[in-house]
Amino acid sequence: MDLDPQAIIAQLNASPVDRVAALRRLKNDVIGDIQKKTLWVQHGLIPHIVKLLLSNDSGNNANGKEARQPFLALDTPAVDETARLQALQLLASFANAGPAFLLPLFAASVLPAVLGESCLQNDHPEIVLAALRVIKHLAVAAASASAHSPISPKSLADIIFSDSYLKSLRQILLPRTSDRENEASITIVAYLIRTLCYEERHQTTLVDSGILDALATRIAAFAMAEGYVLPNAEVRARIEGLGEYIPETPISSGSLDELLGAIAAIITDSPFRVCKLIYSPSIIAVFPNINTDDGQYPDTPPEFIILPGLRPMKPKGPRRMDSVMDLLLPTTPSFPRVLGNGGGFSPPSAQSSREAPNTNGRPSSKLQTSLVSWTPPEENTAHNVDHLGDVESPLVPWLIHLVRTRTGSEALMAASVLTSLFKTGFVYKSREASIGLLVVPVLLELLEDADANIKESGNGWISRDARTKLDVIEETPAVLARLITDSESMQKAAFDCGAVKTICKLLKSSYDTPLSTAESRPWSPNGDHIGIPGSIASECQLGDEGQHPQLIHHRRMRETSLRALGALATFNEDFRKAIVDQQVVTCIIDALNPFAGSSKHTKDQDVLHHSGSRSKTSSLEQNPVSVIVAACYAIRMLSRSVNTLRTALVDQNASEPLFRLLRHPDVEVQIAATACICNLVPDFSPMRDVSIVQIVQSIILTTMFKPLVDTGVIKVLCEHAHSMNSALRLNALWALKNLVDSASIDHKKRCVEELESGWLVRLICDDTEDEALFSAKTRSERPSASATPDVMDEDIDMGFVHEQNRPWLASSLYKATSTTLKSDIRILQLAESQLETLKELEQDPVRKARHDDLAIQEQGLDFIRNLIGGAHSSSSSDSANDTMEMIDYLLIALGQDRLFAILTSKLKPKVLHPFSRRGTSGHETRVLPPQAKIIEAVIFILVHIAASIPRHRQLVIAQTDLLKQLAKLSSSQDREVRVALCHLINNLTWQDDMSDASACSQRATELKNLGFLKKLEALSQSDDELDVRERAKSALWQMKQGY
């Protein structure tokens, strides 16, 4: 070391001029030399540099009105600012040296110092930019940190996205003087959001702080700069008071991909956050929908702006102002929607939304594995929102145009934002086919081009261009998976473009590509200073070297490829067969294991060992949680097949690693594995030939079911059904429901014993999540709760809560960025009202808790239904005897009277318990009607009981209160409820033999007295559904035979 450490540190504590001189000498000494950086860390330099950032901020301007002081002036304040700039640049160099330097930097509290007002709110753009570069380098290093490192992207996001620093980030994004430093600062802020924001709490915070609006303003500015402004849009915006929200054009469009990526990271697939984007004042001003006075919007004056909304319907007739942006797109043929949601909230079909990965266009640790599968009609948000509008925002065709005209990361991020709009229902349904033709091929072309280019460039893992291409390879499959999930037409478009072959090749390469030579830490005569814990201060020693960048790329590519394969295998059997034919099942199974194949793992370890890497992490080659969850998702989709594909899974012994994952320490893995078990244990087949079905069932029972049962899957699933995690509890019940459907009576009884009859009653009877939420709220408001002890035992609900008790609702959904109050602007008043409604529907914890409770209750009731029904209940006399025995067993285990009382309660409207309004007396009650899915489950339990022996039919007919409630449901709007009711009447009036004639006549007479005869006559004559009419006729005929 040429410089004297003691002399340099003394200079840093001397006069401002000496500090600047010392910092410049340090910069010249360490930049580009990692060995010298290591030595300076060991000499304790970093805390002294940080101290300079915490000195009095004489150059900071609190009110923004004082003139900026020049850096080259000789007065003390300017010298202090120069020292601050030099210190930040020096810290950025240390942060850029890799994950090993995270430990000393964080131990010296670099991040709070850099995030402080003296740096991020400094008057000098150069200082702001230098501070942001330090943060960016820390984020890059954290992404490569070892798995057990306390410094991770998640912990970094918790600090950066805290309320203390969001104000500074938002100010950087707001429109200011356009210069290179400001534009570069905006790009870095967008990069930080894009790479660190992947948790909902961070996304919500960024929306509430106004950062999403600020990002939307930047996007609108790019649109104006490129000339993508609708005719007269600016004039119309100024007339309606939006003139101040028309942004200034940026000096360049170089950060478009980062801005779009930041927006995509925030909004993901949240309808509220997507709506917040398209209702942003700048987006409304630049991309307006104009009322053309065609009579469709009588509440809006002609030529005034109207709001786009959920589930827009494309207008017929001549081209309107809101579709002028479509002129940018090529004409595509129109096809009817084949299948899938394609927009809006999760449908009730478990075949679609339940299996959909919830990703945001980049690697994530979570996939949707439960709870979203069950959406009660009245809980479906789209139905609860008042008419938001039926037009589509011009932002949609503009994004499609960007996908087709931009390249690389810009096109990918535009597709990610477009996917969020499509998945949440803000895109015309008729666009599904055109998006499949215009966007899906572009995504696959991006993937193939980036992969080809990176192979040509060799192992250049350091260059910026190579890193951009790697990002495209990692993120494109995730965006594609989000886009095509639940859309059969888009899946076909992807398949026709060779998606299966392309994605499978990527998955294989994540295992087969050899690692490049790892960079080793330079030798130091003092070692790494990692010896006796506590012997040396943390700020004076290096930490873990982190993970090999190529291994990180392999994992991310593996995860997103698995997601894409799972999305492709959602519906079509041919697509699943094509995936199996690519011989990637072994790769998918390997992704379930902590290590990606023992041989490959050993090979990678040898490469690192011989290359001189001395990283101290022992888990470099481990599959992270996100990869394992994605592999579970892919297997769950492939296991929907009952022919070749299940054979492929059996050959690879998929059940063994899945069973181990049920005991994984991470609950997200347990949830994913349990959801996967749901598809491996049921005994079903779409074929109608009984003999073939029996052969297939026999094979499945011996190859999948029996090994799982023998390994103790029943015990594990029953334990998970007791979990405090509602998602795990739901999936465990779902798997048990499927398992008992084909199980022997001994296994069924064992399930009930392991689950415990008392707990099963709680699952189908109690509102566990709702009660837990209510209890927590009650404890926090103990004084007010004591006044109402008489209602504490009633059914719980918090659906009607006073505004002061709604922490999820902000006082204003817009952050003021202008002198004009937004409440004075008509269009923003409408937007804020609609946003508040959406936010409450989406974020209300009570709605979420009740949604979870109802989903679990439905699966619990279906579990009982399968216990007493089963796949073989009518195939032989032995099965009939087993059914009778199982019904009697359940009536004893659960209690006959208690079971029928629970079933009756599920058919009655529920009186909800709201909190009292502050400042008011008394309580306002609400009544929740019985849920269609719950009603259907209850009726089919009764159907199975009535399908047994006459004694059980007599038992059902004796439940007068229950039958009275059923009679009221004959006019249910749900078709399945009416069909189930006809099945029940049919079974109750069935006569086994002549000895049952008298009892059958009695049952028919009782049903007639309860009004079922007239109701069946009405259904058989006037029901809109043919199936209901035919079922009702059959039940009516049989009922009349009985009396």
UniProtKB/TrEMBL annotation:
The lineage of its organism: Eukaryota, Fungi, Dikarya, Ascomycota, Pezizomycotina. Residues 348-369 have a biased composition (Polar residues). GO terms for cellular component: cytoplasm; GID complex; nucleus. This is Uncharacterized protein. Pfam families: Arm. Residues 339-369, 599-618 are annotated as: Disordered. GO terms for biological process: proteasome-mediated ubiquitin-dependent protein catabolic process. The keyword DNA-binding does not apply. It is found in: Cytoplasm; Nucleus. It comes from Xylaria flabelliformis. Keywords: Cytoplasm, Nucleus, Repeat.
